[in-house]
Design a protein that fits this description.
Number of helices: 3
Order of helices and strands: HEEEEHEHEEEEE
Number of domains: 2
Number of strands: 10
CATH topology of the largest domain: Archaeosine Trna-guanine Transglycosylase, Chain: A, domain 4
Helix content: 10-25%
Strand order of the largest sheet: 6-10-9-8-5-7
CATH architecture of the largest domain: Roll
CATH class of the largest domain: Mainly Beta
Structural class: alpha+beta
CATH superfamily of the largest domain: PUA domain
Radius of gyration: 16 Å
Length: 159
């Protein structure tokens, strides 16, 4: 992977990132500890591609729809601040943490605001983050549905 070049965001960039956080998670970047962040732009389009702190990537801005895809540092902060988290049983957490899909039968609880397609943090029953992924079911239905996939895991953190 090529070296990422970081820059300080302009006022317009900060407004864009703040609007994304508010729309997607209902929180401001400052609420999850991103007071002083840097951005990296796509060389071809000039759009914001990465959010980072001290040269470490915290999130990717998905090119297809402009949504924030949090990586572990940001996902851990979002799991504590928002309802965009899914708790799974202890047995399932081990496998999900290695990148496996979350099945609905293993979901213990989920935020009621989660919609299919949302980026969510997956935690074990103690609240320790084990993965991030894309919700495939509404949050209110995840604990009650006993069949099918609930979250497509994007990054497992127990590998």
């Amino acid at each position: 992977m090529a070296e990422i070049s970081w820059e300080k965001p302009s006022v317009k960039d900060k407004k864009t990132v703040a609007a994304l956080f508010l729309y997607q998670y209902g929180v401001k970047p400052e609420d999850v500890g991103l007071e002083d962040y840097d951005i990296s732009r796509s060389r071809k389009t000039g759009r914001i591609r990465y959010l980072g702190v001290d040269g470490r990537i915290y999130a990717t801005i998905r090119a297809t729809d402009g949504f924030i895809v949090p990586l572990r540092p940001l996902a851990a902060r979002l799991a504590g601040e928002s309802e965009y988290r899914v708790a799974v049983s202890s047995e399932a957490a081990e496998y999900v943490g290695r990148g496996r899909t979350v099945f609905a039968r293993h979901v213990v609880s989920a935020g009621n605001v989660i919609r299919p397609g949302d980026e969510v943090a997956v935690t074990d029953v103690e609240g320790k983050i084990v993965a991030v992924g894309k919700a495939l079911l509404p949050g209110r239905d995840m604990p009650t549905i006993m069949r099918g996939k609930a979250v497509k895991t994007r990054h497992g953190f127990l590998q």
